[in-house]
Amino acid sequence: MALRSIANKLALWSSVLVVLVFSCATALNYKIASVQEQGNLARKRDAYLAHMAESLREPLWSMNDTITQAIGNAWMADEEVVSVRITVTHATEPAFEATEGTRSQVLEGMAEITHEGERLGTVEIGISMESLDRALNRFLWYSAASAAVLALTLSAGIIGYLRMLLGKPMAELGRWVEEVAAGNYQTPSATLGETEIKELAKKFSAMAVKVEDRERSLTESERRFREMADMLPQAVFETDLEGNLTYANKRGYEWFGYSFGERIDDFNVVNVIAPGERARAAENIKRRLRGEPPDTNEYELLNRDGGTFSGLVFSGPIVSDGETTGLRGLIIDITERKRLERALQLTQHAVEHLADAVFFLRRDGTFSYVNEAACRKLGYSREELLTMGIAEVDPNFPRETWSRHWDEVANSGGLSLETVHRTKKGAQLHVEVAINQVVFAGEAYQCAIARDISERRAMAARLLQSQKLEAVGTLAGGISHDFNNLIQAISGYCELLLQRDDNPGETTKMLGSIKEASSNAGKLVQKILAFSRTQEVDKRLINLNDEVTKSADMLRRTIPKMVAIDTALENDLWPILADPIQIEQVVMNIALNASDAMHESGTLTIETENQPAAERSVEVMVPEATGDCVVLRISDTGTGMDEETRSKIFEPFFTTKEVGKGTGLGLATAYGIVKSLGGDIRCYSELGEGTAFSIYLPATARPEGGAYLVPEDAPGLPNAASGNERVLIVDDDPMVRDLASAALTGKGYAVAKADNGDSALLLYREAFEGARAFDLVLLDLGMPGMGGRRCLEELLKIDPGAKVVIATGYSLAAQAKGILDAGASGFLNKPYRLAELARLVREVLDRRA
Prior knowledge:
Blueprint: H1 2-62, H2 65-76, E1 81-88, E2 96-99, E3 106-115, E4 118-128, H3 130-181, H4 196-231, E5 235-239, E6 245-248, H5 250-255, H6 278-289, E7 295-302, E8 308-320, E9 323-333, H7 335-352, E10 357-361, E11 367-370, H8 372-378, H9 382-385, H10 399-412, E12 414-422, E13 428-440, E14 443-452, H11 454-498, H12 505-531, E15 540-542, H13 544-558, E16 563-569, E17 576-578, H14 580-597, E18 602-611, E19 629-636, H15 643-646, H16 666-676, E20 680-686, E21 690-698, E22 726-730, H17 734-745, E23 750-754, H18 757-769, E24 776-780, H19 788-798, E25 804-808, H20 813-821, E26 826-829, H21 834-846
Parallel strand pairs: 16-18, 22-23, 22-24, 24-25, 25-26
Antiparallel strand pairs: 1-2, 1-4, 3-4, 5-6, 5-9, 7-8, 8-9, 10-11, 10-14, 12-13, 13-14, 15-17, 18-19, 19-21, 20-21
Helix pairs in contact: 1-2, 1-3, 3-4, 11-12, 11-17, 12-16, 13-14, 14-16, 18-19
């Protein structure tokens, strides 16, 4: 319709133009006709004047007034003449004057009347112009009618032509435009003709093709945009001015618990934010809708099922034609990132507070990061270390070898090594370093974790020393059994020889020397047993101060008077569980060595103190019984020792004294006693600075019973300890077995011998079943094969009333007590005297069952 109205308007304006043209032509013709008619009327007037002047010449010349008037009246009779005036020269009044009515339009004229060159007068005439008006009006109406008919005819033709030329093509073009608007981009039909409209249509068609291409591209672009938006791992959304959702991608639907494409009518962006954050979110949305630039905010978001996740929301206004129409944004799920951030913060916190030093090194060997432990251990501030390199801290990694080390770590994936770090004060720390290479932000670093092993190395050295001493002690404990048997044989046979009356004096003297030597050898074995912690002990709850006081009094009577003895004993000292004799032995051994080191001049200081577990050095190896220790310190002002000597002082038989002036078992024995009590011993010494021994003994408040000990008899036991009972001697050492047999046979006993437990059981069973059971069994505890403990149990199974005396050289008191509790009748320490053997046998035999 719009295009057809254009054709109508063109036709209308064409018609108006035709009318205007014909109107102008009619007006022009009217003007021309008017001028022509006026000329005709003027000529008619002039003819009238000439005729009247001719007709009045004679009358005026003859002065015939009657004729003059008659002529005037005759002209007045003419309908066109409306006024006549005839005047005579030199007359004051007109000769004739007449006027018909009052007409508005009159064409007047005047002519002179002459006769033979003499002016007779004038005649004036007025002709009515009504005829002219009538003629012009007739012309005008005729012309107007003709113009109107012609204009209408032309207008009709123009309208028809324009409609044919424009209307139908324009209508067709209009329909095609509507189809283009509907998406039909086909070329218009041939009815458009060959006019400019078709050219326009062709151009419009080309434009439509381009529009179609652009629409196709736009559709494809929109499709790609939606597919890309749906593929995004983030949620994309748009809202209106009220915050209601108008668009969301697939991820947005999923995150908030909706099916993709589901219609959501009540979804408002504020409602999916945690209640505590909604006020802040609403204010941020208002700022965006006011036109403030986009920004990013973090919120706790809610989904349809009530679950939450952390989201980073980037939003900005949607502006169309300069007007804000809504909000557009992107949501990033940062739940995992926040978890990783927290984990990273925890990791960073843990690394920063590690006890081990952590270093990150660049390729050039400089530090890019150090933790607090690294600063603390090396004595530098963090700022100082970050300006330094590994070469300034570790002398084993100079700059010239660093690149080789870097490549080695890169190729191997990681290294572990021990090295030395130098502190700011110049001290050296032995460290164990684990190194690996990491790549961060495209740059490679080496991460080194250094653990200070200075104390561990020292403890390892002490542990090695302790293990070495432990091994020596175990060996000593093992061979002490054989030593005891040898000593037992030597001393026993000496006793038998000394009991003979036919010994020459010189022989008796030599036998006495042999017996004294065997006694000294027995004492040496006791020292070895003390070192190996297999010596019998009588543990009880004691106050260390009391034993130190007794030992100090004894030392004042023993060591040279020039050596001063000072004591500093802590009041209310915690009790310890120990054998008083062993404590005395420890103090005496260390103090006598100290006296020798001071060359009979100096000060010996003995101190005691309580030391809570929290104050104890980690290098002190004390079992955590109660956690607390009692410390005994013995120090001197002697010559001191170098490191090499100090490392060997607890080894058995090691001594710095001259040959014959020491066995080298004093400190070894002290070491063994302290270890048997669950304690630790430390030596601190420098050449020329004296020596100090610190002994750490676990404090306790739990009394425990002491071990059962067979009391020693006084020398010269009576020979009356004899009898005639049957005795079975069980010992794997033939010399000890034969010696005991000879001693008891000499006392009148009937003796049988067995060299192991199995033989002993066979002999005892045969005798018991034959009603000739043995009255007593002398049983060695340490035998190969079936040991003495098991043999005792089997004997008691055969004869619950059997009397068994246990003999051994290295049983602990607690073990001895346990054996006695298991059914043994007595306990005898090797090496024993023959008189002691006879007395104990007699005593056990005389006991009531």
